[in-house]
Each structure stands twice: as C-alpha cells, then as structure tokens.
Amino acid sequence: MENDPVLSLRPIAADELLAIAAIEKRVHRQPWTEAQFQAEVDKPYSHLWVLTDDETDQVLTGYIVFWELGETIELLNVAVDLPYRGIGLGERLVRAMIQHGLKTDRLQVMLEVRVSNSSAISLYQKCGFEVLQTRKSFYSDGEDAFQMKLTLSTWGGTA
Ligand SMILES: CC(C)(COP(=O)(O)OP(=O)(O)OC[C@H]1O[C@@H](n2cnc3c(N)ncnc32)[C@H](O)[C@@H]1OP(=O)(O)O)[C@@H](O)C(=O)NCCC(=O)NCCS
After folding, report:
1. What is the pLDDT of residues 95-143, one digit of tens each?
2. What's the total number of domains in the chain?
3. What angle do CA 87, 73, 82 make, to 5 degrees?
4. Residue 66: is its pLDDT beyond 70?
5. How far is the CA of 91 from the centre of ligand 1 (A)?
C-alpha cells in the first residue's frame, strides 16, 4: 500500500480465513490453522476483526481475535503482516479491542504472551497492561508465558 493508506477494522469475511491463516504462518512460531480461525468465527463470544485498506478492502494488514466472557475480555491473538509492521497498526488493533471493552462495560482485559516476545510485551505495556504472573511452560514447546492484565474499570488512557 502506498502513501499513508486509510485502513478500517471490520469482522472477517468467510472467504478470508485462508488468507489470514497464510499471514499467521508467516508471523507465529505455532500458527493457528484455517480450521482454528473458523472455530473462532463460529463461537458467539469470539471476535475476529481484520484491518484492511478502505480503497479496495482486499489488503489484509493485520487481525485480532478476542473473547468476551462476562466481565472479562481475553485477547487470544493479534498480528500484523510483515510489510506493515512498525507503523502503529498493532497498537490500533489492541486499542480498538480496549475501546470495545470500555463501550461494553467489561472490567478487564487478560492475555498471555511468550516471555521472549519483547515487541508484543512492549506493545501491551504501551497500552497499559501489567504483568500479573509468569505461567510456567504455558506453551506446548515449553516456553513460559506472562499473564498480563489491563483493568478497564479504572482505566485512564485513551483508546
Ligand atoms: C506484536 C505486533 C502485533 C506489533 O505490531 P506492529 O504494528 O509492528 O506494532 P506498532 O507499530 O503498532 O507498535 C506499537 C508498539 O509496539 C511495540 N513494538 C512494536 N514493534 C516492536 C519491536 N520490533 N521492538 C520493540 N517494540 C516493538 C512498541 O512499544 C511500539 O510502540 P513505539 O512505536 O512507540 O515504540 C507484531 O510485531 C506482530 O504481528 N508480531 C507477531 C505476532 C505476535 O507476536 N503477536 C502477539 C502475541 S499473540
């Protein structure tokens, strides 16, 4: 995309699951499959939003998956495709989820992140998340996770 494109967030379309799974393979060590994304689409409490260009609505730059469970939002996955990194899109995705949580009166956002994933940890901290605890061998390859939390009820930032 050229010249500061205008991008918008919307729910994923049924024919975009394969494309999202392809991005996922490029960006994650243990990528979700197309079937896993489909399973998220089928859950009433799950949201899968994609960030696309307004001009064609075809360029998938990134996506976010989160659950709404009672008073809690659980962030499951957020990713920006490689050509679009470092220009604020990851932050835009996370802040859109936070904004949704505020609008729907949720109390907190929870997530797990690999302890080695310094860019994601830094993104979450920038958005106000704090580390609650370390979860030992949380991932199937044995890596630990930080469990992080953002309290929405007392949140003073701008989403
Ligand atoms: C994490 C990820 C979503 C960030 O997306 P991005 O669009 O490149 O990030 P942004 O441009 O919005 O950056 C926002 C903040 O994130 C942090 N960040 C992003 N990239 C970073 C990097 N390479 N190194 C350190 N911090 C980084 C910074 O705090 C940055 O704020 P700053 O620009 O003021 O320094 C992206 O790197 C990604 O898709 N990673 C692979 C998937 C993943 O690990 N997801 C998270 C776990 S599910």
Report:
1. 999 999 999 999 999 999 999 999 999 999 999 999 999 999 999 999 9
2. 1
3. 25
4. yes
5. 7
Q: Which of 85, 117, 148 to mutate to test the pocket of ligand 1 (most atoms within 8 A of CB)?
A: 85
75 lines ligand 1 (CB under 6 A): no
Residues 6+ apart with CB under 8 A from 100: 47, 73
Domain with residue 41: its CATH number is 3.40.630.30
4 vs 155: CA distance, rounded Å: 30
Calculate how far, in angstroms, residue 109's C-alpha sits from the geometric centre of ligand 1. Answer: 18
Residue 2 has a pLDDT of 46
Q: 11 vs 5, 8, 40, 46, CA distance in Å?
A: 19, 10, 12, 11
In a domain, 34, yes or no: yes
**Does the Cβ of 80 fall within 6 Å of ligand 1?**
yes
